[in-house]
Design a protein that fits this description.
The protein is of the alpha/beta class. It is built from 14 helices and 19 strands.
C-alpha cells in the first residue's frame, strides 16, 4: 500500500515508520523542510513531500495515489500563537486535500476524553477529530492517554522528576488517575487498524492494563530504578506555579508544561473495547513499558525523542536558509588545530554535548543554559538522543543540528537559545587533518553587539580550551 505519514519528523511517526517499511508499504512522509526529515533507512520505499499544513498551497505536493493517510500532527508545544487555532487550520487543509486523493482510510491518533470539562489540549484534539470526520473517507480514531517509551514526553518528564528529586513537594494533580500505554502497543494499534473494516468510522480508547495516579507512576518508576523517593502532595500550588515547577525541573518547554498541567487535572481512563483482542495485541504493563524503554536507552537504540519537536518557531520558514553560514555583518571566533588522530577527533566532535559535555568549562555552559531558561529559553535540559549518533534536525542541548556529515567531516549547529541575534557553531575537519572550529554570531541591533562584547572574554578561553581538548 501507499501510505501518507503526516508529522513524519515527530515522535510517533518516527516509531511507526520502520514498522510500516518492514511490512513492505511505500511511505510518503510529509515534512515542512525535507532536509530535516531523517531517512536513516536508505529505503527506496520512502519519498518525502515538502508540506506545511498551515500553507494550503503546499498540500498539492501530496500524491494523488495514496491508499491510507495517517494524521499525526500536533501543536501543543508551540511557543507562539494559539495551538488550538493552528490545529484547526491544519486539519481543515488536510481534509480539503485528502478528499482529492484516492485514500480509502484516515487513521488519527487523538487523546482519551471522558470528562465533560476538557482541557484546551483535549478539546483541541476533539475538534480536530470532528473536522476530519466530516470527510467522505472512513476515519479510524485511536485515543491514547499517557504514552510511555524511550524518548516519549511522559517517560522523559517522569525520568527527570524521579532521578533529580529525592523529595518532591508536588501539586494536587498528582492524585489524578490515568491509564498509561506502551509506545510499542500504540504502534501495534496504528498498524493493526489498516484496512480493518470494523474500525472504519469508529473511535477506540487505547490504554494499558494499569490504572495509576501520577504519584503512583513516579513511585513505580523509582522502584524500578532502585531509588527511594518521597512525594508530598500539597493543595497550594496554582496551575501557573505547577507549570513553572515542571518547566524548571524537567526538559519540557514552558508552553508545553502549561498545557500538560491543564490536561493532568483531568482523569484519562480508557473506555473498554475489544480492539486489542481483535488485533491480537498483548497490552504491556506500565512496569514492562519502563523496562523496555531503558533497554532501548542502554542499547543506544532510541529512534526518536519528543524534544526534537520542541522549537521556538525559528525554522518556521525551513532550515535551508540557515545552512549557509553568513559572512557579512557577523562576529566570528575561528580557531584551527592540527590533529594526529583524525578518527578520534571526529568521534569526539560527534559525542559533544549531553552527558559528554563541551570539553571545557561545563559549569559555564550550565550557567548559560540556566540564564536561557530563566528568560523562557530551552536551556541545556534537552541533552541529546544518542551519545554517539547525531542526525540532521534533532536537538543537541540548546542547539539544533543543521548539518551532520561524517563523510564530509562537518558538523553545523544553530542556536535555539534566547539571543539578540543568530548564532552558529561549526566543526570541519580538512583533508590535511586540520580541525577548524568556527563560532559565528549575527547581531540584531545594538543589543546584539553589546551581547557579543560582553561574552567575548569568556569565549576567548572557552573556545580555545574546547578545540584543544577535542584534538588532544
Amino acid at each position: 500500500m501507499k501510505i501518507l505519514l503526516t508529522g513524519a519528523t515527530g515522535y510517533i511517526a518516527q516509531r511507526l515508520l520502520p514498522v510500516l517499511l518492514e511490512q513492505g508499504h511505500h511511505i510518503v512522509c510529509t515534512a515542512r523542510d525535507a532536509r530535516r526529515f531523517r531517512n536513516q533507512y536508505n529505503s527506496p520505499n520512502i519519498e518525502v513531500a515538502e508540506v506545511d499544513f498551515l500553507d494550503k498551497k503546499t498540500l498539492k505536493n501530496i500524491p494523488q495515489d495514496i491508499d491510507i493517510a495517517y494524521y499525526l500532527i500536533h501543536s501543543m508545544s508551540t511557543n507562539s500563537g494559539s495551538f488550538e487555532d493552528m490545529e484547526q487550520i491544519c486539519a481543515e487543509n488536510f481534509i480539503d486535500r485528502i478528499q482529492e486523493t484516492n485514500a480509502q482510510q484516515i487513521i488519527y491518533l487523538s487523546g482519551i476524553v471522558n470528562d465533560q470539562e476538557l482541557s484546551k489540549h483535549l478539546s483541541s484534539r476533539m475538534n480536530v477529530e470532528t473536522i476530519i470526520s466530516r470527510s467522505t473517507i472512513p476515519l479510524t480514531t485511536l485515543r491514547a492517554g499517557i504514552i510511555v517509551g524511550s524518548g516519549s514526553a511522559s517517560f522523559e518528564i517522569i525520568r527527570d522528576l524521579v532521578e533529580k528529586l529525592p523529595v518532591m513537594i508536588t501539586p494536587i494533580w498528582l492524585k489524578t488517575k490515568c491509564q498509561p500505554i506502551a509506545i510499542r502497543n500504540v504502534v501495534e494499534f496504528l498498524v493493526g487498524v489498516i484496512g480493518h473494516k470494523k474500525a472504519y468510522d469508529a473511535s477506540f480508547d487505547i490504554g494499558g492494563p494499569d490504572i495509576l495516579t501520577y504519584k503512583e507512576m513516579l513511585l513505580k518508576f523509582a522502584e524500578i530504578r532502585g531509588l527511594k523517593r518521597y512525594i508530598y502532595v500539597v493543595p497550594i500550588m496554582t496551575p501557573r506555579l505547577s507549570s513553572y515547577w515542571l518547566y524548571f525541573v524537567t526538559s519540557t518547554s514552558y508552553a508545553l508544561a502549561k498545557n500538560l498541567v491543564d490536561s493532568m487535572k483531568i482523569e484519562v481512563i480508557a473506555e473498554p473495547n475489544d480492539l486489542a483482542t481483535d488485533l491480537h495485541i498483548k497490552l504491556l504493563t506500565y512496569s514492562k513499558a519502563i523496562n523496555l524503554a531503558f533497554d532501548k536507552i542502554e542499547q543506544n537504540q532510541v529512534l526518536s525523542s519528543w524534544k526534537d519537536a520542541q522549537t521556538s518557531n525559528i525554522f518556521r520558514r525551513g532550515m535551508q536558509q540557515y545552512m549557509e553560514v553568513p559572512t557579512y555583518g557577523c562576529f566570528k571566533d575561528v580557531r584551527t588545530r592540527k590533529t594526529e588522530n583524525p578518527e578520534q577527533t571526529l568521534n569526539r566532535i560527534w559525542a559533544i554535548g549531553g552527558e559528554t559535555g563541551w570539553y571545557y568549562g561545563d559549569w559555564l555552559w550550565k550557567i548559560r543554559g540556566f540564564m536561557d531558561q530563566i528568560v523562557g529559553g530551552v536551556g541545556l535540559r534537552r541533552g541529546r538522543r544518542s551519545p554517539t549518533d547525531i542526525r540532521v534536525g534533532e536537538t543537541l542541548d540548546f542547539w539544533r543540528v543543521l548539518i551532520s556529515d561524517k563523510e564530509d567531516q562537518r558538523l553545523l549547529l544553530f542556536a535555539e537559545m534566547k539571543l539578540p541575534g543568530e548564532a552558529w557553531l561549526e566543526f570541519k575537519l580538512d583533508e590535511d587533518n586540520t580541525l577548524t572550529q568556527t563560532a559565528t554570531f549575527r547581531p540584531l541591533g545594538l543589543w546584539g553587539r553589546v551581547y557579543w562584547y560582553s561574552v567575548l572574554p569568556f569565549h576567548g578561553v572557552l573556545f580555545k580550551k574546547m578545540i584543544n581538548n577535542i584534538v588532544k
